[in-house]
TrEMBL record:
GO terms for biological process: cell wall organization. Residues 1-30 form the signal peptide. It holds the Pfam family PAE. Hydrolyzes acetyl esters in homogalacturonan regions of pectin. In type I primary cell wall, galacturonic acid residues of pectin can be acetylated at the O-2 and O-3 positions. Decreasing the degree of acetylation of pectin gels in vitro alters their physical properties. GO terms for cellular component: plant-type cell wall. Its EC number is 3.1.1.-. The keyword Cell membrane does not apply. Belongs to the pectinacetylesterase family. PANTHER family: NOTUM-RELATED, PECTIN ACETYLESTERASE. It is found in: Secreted, Cell wall. One of its GO terms (molecular function) is pectin acetylesterase activity. InterPro entries: PAE/NOTUM. This is Pectin acetylesterase.
C-alpha cells in the first residue's frame, strides 16, 4: 500500500533468477494504483467529482492475427469519444505494469490483469490526462481518449510463444491490432494525435513513437509523451545492473528484438535498446519526457531491490524517502545526475520537451493530483499539464523544465509506502 506525502551478474543459480523476478513482480504489484485503473485509487484520493467510468472493449478478431495476451485471451482498451473541437483529435494512453522475463513470472502475470483480459476491470476511471472535464484536463478533455490495456509483459513488443508453458508473447501484434482497430473507428482521420504511456507503457510510447507517426498524413500534428518511462541503465547498490539483466531476459524471452528501432539496434545490442537513454536522441517524432528524478519504482526495483540489498540497509529508505540516510540521499543524487545527463543530447532538438521534477514519484499524468490540480507539482510557475500542453500546441518555446535537487521542491506529491 502506498500513500502520498506533500512536499556484472554472471551465471546465477536458477532459484536466484526466479527470486529476483518475483521480487520485481511484487514491486510492480505495489505500484498498481499508481498506474490508475480502479476506483480504490479514486476513493483514497477523495476526488470532489466522481470520475467518468469507461467500459472495456475487447478487440474482436485479434486472436485470428495472433494478437493475444499472455494467456491467449483477447487484448482490450477503453475508449471515450471526443466532441466539438476535439472530435478529430486522439490521445492514446498505453498502460504500464512491469515486465516478465522468465517463465515463472510470466505464469504469475497471466493470472492477473497484466497478463489476461479475463482479470481486467470492466470499467475504469478516466482521470488526469484522460479526464473529460476541462477543469481537470484543460487541453485534452474533449479529445478521443483511449487507454490500451497492458497484458503482454514486454512493453507492447515481442513476437514469440512458449508452447510448453502455454504462454503467448505477442506485444507487437497487440500494438498493431489495437492501432488497426482504432484506425477503423476514426483515428485514421485524426488532425492531431498524442501517443502517451506510463511506466512500462511510457517505455512503449518511446519504442513505438515513430511507428505511430507513420500512421497519419504528414499534415497531422503527431507527438509522443513518455511518463515515468525513462528507465536508466544504472548500477545498483551491490555494483551489479539488476535492470539490465531484467531487460536482457525480457528481450530474449519475448523475441522483442524485431520491435526495437533499427536506429538503435544498428549501434547497440538489443538489451541496451530497451533502455530509453540509448533511444531518445534518435526518435524523429517530437517527444516529451516526464519523469521524477527520484523515480520510486527504479529505487525499489532497480537501484536497491531486496535481492541485492542483502543486509537490508535500504529497507526503510525504499519505503519512505524521509528515512533515507545522508549517504543514501547522496547516492540518489547521483542517480538524478545520471538522469539529467541522459537527456542532454535529446534536449538539443527544439521539437522535444521534458519535465524532470525532483520528487519521489512514479507516473504523474494518470493521477489527478499530480497532472492538474490546485496544488499539483510545479517547476517554476508551470505544472505538468500546462507544460505538456504548451509543448504539444507550440504555445511557447522549448519546454525544458528541470527541478532543483531534493529537498528544495516543496510542490512534490511524494510516494510513501507502508
Amino acid at each position: 500500500m502506498w500513500k502520498t506525502s506533500k512536499s556484472s551478474w554472471g551465471m546465477k543459480p536458477w532459484w536466484v533468477v526466479g527470486f529476483v523476478g518475483l521480487v520485481i513482480m511484487k514491486v510492480v504489484e505495489g505500484f498498481d494504483n499508481v498506474n490508475v485503473t480502479d476506483m480504490d485509487y479514486v476513493k483514497t484520493k477523495g476526488f470532489n467529482n466522481r470520475p467518468l467510468m469507461v467500459g472495456i472493449t475487447l478487440i474482436n478478431g485479434a486472436d485470428a492475427k495472433g494478437a493475444v495476451c499472455l494467456d491467449g485471451s483477447l487484448p482490450a482498451y477503453h475508449l471515450h469519444r471526443g466532441y466539438g473541437s476535439g472530435s478529430n483529435s486522439w490521445l492514446i494512453q498505453l498502460e504500464g505494469g512491469g515486465w516478465c522475463g522468465n517463465i515463472k513470472t510470466c505464469e504469475y502475470s497471466k493470472r492477473t490483469r497484466h497478463g489476461s483480459s479475463n482479470f481486467m476491470e470492466k470499467q475504469i476511471p478516466f482521470v488526469g490526462i484522460l479526464s473529460n472535464k476541462a477543469e481537470e484536463n484543460p487541453d485534452f478533455f474533449n479529445w478521443n481518449r483511449v487507454k490500451i490495456r497492458y497484458c503482454d509483459g514486454s512493453s507492447f513488443s515481442g513476437n514469440s510463444q512458449n508452447n510448453a508453458a502455454n504462454l503467448y508473447f505477442r506485444g507487437q501484434r497487440i500494438w498493431e491490432a489495437a492501432m488497426e482497430d482504432l484506425r477503423s473507428k476514426g483515428m485514421r482521420y485524426a488532425k492531431q494525435a498524442l501517443l502517451s504511456g506510463c511506466s512500462a507503457g511510457g517505455l512503449a510510447s518511446i519504442l513505438h513513437c515513430d511507428e505511430f507517426r507513420g500512421m497519419f498524413p504528414a499534415t497531422s500534428k503527431v507527438k509522443c509523451l513518455s511518463d515515468a518511462g525513462l528507465f536508466l541503465d544504472s548500477v545498483d547498490v551491490s555494483g551489479s545492473r539488476t535492470l539490465r539483466r531484467t531487460f536482457r531476459d525480457v528481450v530474449a524471452l519475448h523475441g522483442a528484438m524485431g520491435s526495437l528501432p533499427r536506429s538503435c539496434t544498428s549501434h547497440f545490442n538489443p538489451t541496451l535498446c530497451f533502455f530509453p537513454q540509448y533511444l531518445i536522441s534518435s526518435v524523429r517524432t517530437p517527444l516529451f519526457i516526464l519523469n521524477a528524478a527520484y523515480d520510486t519504482w527504479q529505487i525499489q526495483a532497480s537501484l536497491a531491490p531486496p535481492s541485492v540489498d542483502r543486509r537490508w540497509n535500504w529497507a526503510a529508505c525504499r519505503k519512505n524517502y524521509a528515512r533515507c540516510s545522508a549517504s543514501q540521499i547522496h547516492y540518489l543524487q547521483g542517480f538524478r545526475n545520471q538522469m539529467l545527463n541522459s537527456v542532454r543530447g535529446f534536449s538539443r532538438a527544439r521539437k522535444n520537451g521534458f519535465f524532470i521534477n525532483s520528487c519521489f514519484a512514479h507516473c504523474q499524468t494518470e493521477r489527478q493530483d499530480t497532472w492538474f490540480a490546485y496544488n499539483s507539482p510545479h517547476i517554476g510557475n508551470r505544472g505538468i499539464a500546462e507544460s505538456v500542453g504548451n509543448w504539444f500546441f507550440d504555445r511557447v518555446g522549448m519546454q525544458a523544465n528541470i527541478g532543483c535537487a531534493y529537498p528544495c521542491d516543496k510542490t512534490c506529491h511524494n510516494l510513501v509506502f507502508d
